[in-house]
Amino acid sequence: MNNASPRPDAATVAGIEQEQFLAILSREEALARFEAALFPRPIALDERLLGEALGSALGADVVAPIDVPPFDRANVDGFAVRSADLAQAGEAHAALLALNDERIACGTLPGLAVSPGTATPISTGGPIPRGADAVIMVEHTEPAGEGIEVRRAAGPGQFISYAGSDMARGETLLRAGTVIGAREVGMLAACGIAVVTVARKPRVAVLSTGDELVQPGAPLPPAGIYDTNGAIVSAAIAENGGEPVFLGAFPDDEAKLEAAMRAALAQHDMLILSGGTSKGAGDVTHRIIARLGKPGIVAHGVALKPGKPLCLAVCDGKPVVILPGFPTSAMFTFHDMIVPVLRRMAGLPPRTDAHVAATVPLRVPSELGRTEFVMVSLVEGREGLVAYPTGKGSGAITSFTQADGFVRIEALADHLPAGTQVEVTLFTPQVHVPDLVIIGSHCTGLDRVLAPLARQGLSLRSLSVGSLGGLAAARRGECDLAPIHLFDDKTRSYNEPFLSPDLELVPGWRRMQGFVYRKGDARFEGLSAQAAVEAALADPACLMVNRNQGAGTRILIDALLAGARPDGYWNQPKSHNAVAAAVSQGRADWGVTIAPVADAAGLGFIALTEEHYDFALVSARRERPAVEAFLSALRSPEVRQALEEAGFRPA
Ligand code: AMP
Ligand code: MG
């Protein structure tokens, strides 16, 4: 090899500055660089009305400006007395007191002193009159002529709260950095404070990038994606002490984006973008940041999964971050890398997350060299909590709502063996183990059965891991029921042949499978399913969509095709919905899916045969109240009717 002059690589030719992205930093190193470029820095302060201070951190110590209570105060309804007058009082000896001619209610200033041998009626909260040093309860007195009779002694100070006994003027009540909650608001109100000095919430501009993005509420054009990160990031900022200012989604247009980013940075304390941080041709945000201020990018490319393309920058003292585009990646990198910095700028203590111990039921693969976050759902197993990975990849958002928390797999591990003890960081402070756990194949019909159970107050969890995954979970005792739809080729029957001795079959419902096509396609209108397939095979321009190996539907399709392999055969999505989407969007002309899904997509449907969707019940769990509730809901006329209306045929 000689030292030939280096040839520019493709990226340089394309004008992309990639130096930073090539140097992937560990999570710890990236965070350390980011923090070093930002801190120490003074915390900006703000004055807030008490009613608007909730959730802010106090910016300065609060010293009590008055005594609370401000005067000596009666704690009970009764009489203000001189304790010396009652020194001899007892069961055998009644003390007689004359009543002074006033009644001290809350808010009344006493006018008369309590002189020896007298008492003044007083209400709870009333100021103690001059001369009195105790209060006796009305219940412990009897009327006697013009006065009262008392048959028990009272010590000095009885039933009196002295001025300043709660908060003393000059006492430090709350320290800077305390997060203002309802209790702190109460203390501040009690001593008359209407305006507090708080750490100013950092104003964080949020900007989504991508030509494909559409705001929720607007119709979704073909190839459009709803802007998820704008909402997620704004909410997460508010949860962590910032004030989000969402500026919308911007197309990947370098000039427009640069103008928007400059304006945003000038008016806010921090700028968070998402998308456009990878090496794609349209990804321009990181190139702009390099021009926004010093020192610029401190990390681009972090050994995180999800979240590798994260870009961290500091531009003239302000943090500028580009989160990865995929919403789950954006969320994790935000929580792991941005939250610590945001909270510090907001004067808040570090986030305290709750953790629980659990085991993973399956081998969890992980990429060597990257700190990996795996979302998990918790269920009760035979020996404690079991953490089910719920992720469907970094592009999936549903994993969030099903997950109770996440597991962090360190960069040096390439997998977690099944049965590994893990520490789960919870998304909410408490784990709530659900009353009923259903793990297996998902069907929209299931929602019809679960709805009445949720109304009864049962907490439910259904994890979709496919029929076989459900059966395995049931055998391990991790769920109550496993919904399955497995066709056994040998016996030509559904589900029953797949059960093991500890499981029993609960019939669910039937789902009509059919040939689907776009309504009005003259090639198929009015034909039987077999004739429609023949028509499709006869037209070389006709494109099919298949199903994955192992799906019951796939067996049907292969039978219909009788060995033919038409164009589209290798397009093998894993769900009924994906088949309907492919046909309705014109990526295929025909496929096989179930009737409710075809209806929802507005497709033409030619009935073929019924698929059986049943439940494998863990026999040992049959008596559990939530299982009984499920079984009776399944048989109830209302649920059966709801299933029928949704296009299913209850068994
Ligand atoms: P990018 O980093 O821009 O290449 O985006 C990676 C993926 O995330 C693409 O599938 C984008 O459509 C998607 N994506 C980017 N931004 C958003 C967003 N704000 N909301 C939802 N998906 C997004
Ligand atoms: Mg993009």
UniProtKB/TrEMBL annotation:
What lineage is on file? Bacteria, Pseudomonadati, Pseudomonadota, Alphaproteobacteria, Hyphomicrobiales
**Gene3D superfamilies linked:** MoaB/Mog-like domain, MoeA, C-terminal, domain IV, Molybdopterin biosynthesis moea protein, domain 2, Molybdopterin biosynthesis moea protein, domain 3
The family note in this entry says: Belongs to the MoeA family.
Could you tell me which NCBIfam families the record lists for this protein?
Answer: Glp_gephyrin, molyb_syn, PRK14498.1
Q: Name one GO molecular function term.
A: molybdopterin molybdotransferase activity
* MoaB/Mog domain: residues covered: 205-344
Class of this enzyme: transferase
The name this protein carries in UniProt is Molybdopterin molybdenumtransferase
Q: Does the keyword Transferase apply?
A: yes
**Native organism:** Pseudaminobacter salicylatoxidans
User: Mind telling me which PANTHER family this protein's record contains?
Assistant: GEPHYRIN, MOLYBDOPTERIN BIOSYNTHESIS PROTEIN
Question: What are the required cofactors?
Answer: Mg(2+)
Pathway, per Swiss-Prot/TrEMBL? Cofactor biosynthesis; molybdopterin biosynthesis
